[in-house]
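Why do we bother with holo predictions? Because pocket geometry can differ from the apo form. Keep that in mind while you read this record for iron/sulfur cluster.
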Amino acid sequence: MKRFYLESYGCQMNVYDTQGLERMLEDHGYTRVVAPEDADVVLVNTCSVREHAEERTLNRLAVLTRLKAKNPALKVGVCGCMAQRMGGEIKKRIPRVDLVIGAQALPAVLPALQALERGESTAPVIEPLDHYLPPPRPRLDARNLKGFVTIIRGCNKACAYCIVPTTRGPEVSRHPDDVVLEVHELVLRGAKEVTLLGQNVNSYESAGVDFPELLARCGAIPGKWRLRFTTSHPRDMAPETVRRMAAAPRLAPWLHLPVQSGSRRLLKAMNRDYTLDQYLAAVEAAREAIPDLALTTDLIVGFPGETAEDFAETCALVERVRYDTFYAFKYSPRSGTAAARRDDDVSPEEKQRRLALLLEVQRRLSHEVNQAYVGRTLEVLVEGRDAKRGNGLSRTGQNKIVVLPWSDALVPGHFLEATITRAEGQTLYGAPVDAAPAP
Ligand code: 5AD
Ligand code: SF4
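The structure, written out:
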């Protein structure tokens, strides 16, 4: 039972954990395969953030466990946030699941697999373990350009809608030396962009090093590469973070600053820990310090008690801040959270309507915001070639895609200056300075 297949859902931190699982298993003689049909063990690392994510995963598990018909020795395991939240409940829904290991107990995957190999059955493990998965082998994305490093696990906030503090537990920051070493290894292997990850990176604190200091230490690693981070919490983002971003060209001018709602009343009901005025002040300070800044956010529509007026305030906030882009979600009650005790009183149709309206606003705003880039010259990282049209693809520090005419001069992993000639929706079109006209 040595061939494993892994699937990952949810956020980047889950991707990071999945790579850690992969390393742990490979270090113990297991081999990863790319098709579940070829595996002795199938593992799914899951997400709980919305009910939809869980439903999809349960459906997927039903499909994967059906592989047992052809391969009766196959073992199927569920780990991560949904395993943490549902525990033994998963086996009731999908009886042929062999292994349930919560997001706070991931190192238990290995002993549980070994027990299964001995023919024993395993009970769900969700008690937090105080030892951790090994960090992933330094590994870049498919284009070999981007790396991700989790710096802090868990979350100490208590946003009324959010399951993450339950699934991932309280915050634990990694030692700064470990973080710096991992970033350094990625850069030495050719990473051109490294993203530091956490539910709330701003509350990072370990061995007397806070987040701005960690940024400085990572940023001091030499080479031509970019540093990003996500997610920032509006309440905890220190002014020093913005100062460092402004002062260090290494730090990409991009800030993901989730606001969730533009209604003062709902921010309170959501227990977001900041007022709308504090949020707007943080945005203003960041924009003042970093004139090139791209700002993105997350929004929830249909939180319990959200009136038409509350929703109009969210729309007004979006118009006022003029985000480069945002992610909007329909509120999904998560049992065990404070909001789940309240009546989910916005109908599914109304949530859908509000979501569609917000996305409409976003399309218009992104278009307007991106028009302002036309005529500007920006540094872009060449990422590769568009498989469909054959154009070159690159990315600005603001995290915007710039389509370039393909030429042999475009080398993935190289930075170059490009002049933006046209903007369409989220996409910019341009040409390298002193080169052929844009596509
Ligand atoms: N329902 C809908 N959206 C949610 N998010 C978190 N919890 C919920 C929920 N219960 C959204 C928030 C968060 C993003 C990652 O997911 O906007 O920032
Ligand atoms: Fe999903 Fe949140 Fe867990 Fe990431 S931390 S996998 S987004 S529930």
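Residues 49-50, 161-162, 258, 260, 298, 300, 329, 331-332, 334 surround 5'-deoxyadenosine (ligand 1) (CB under 6 Å).
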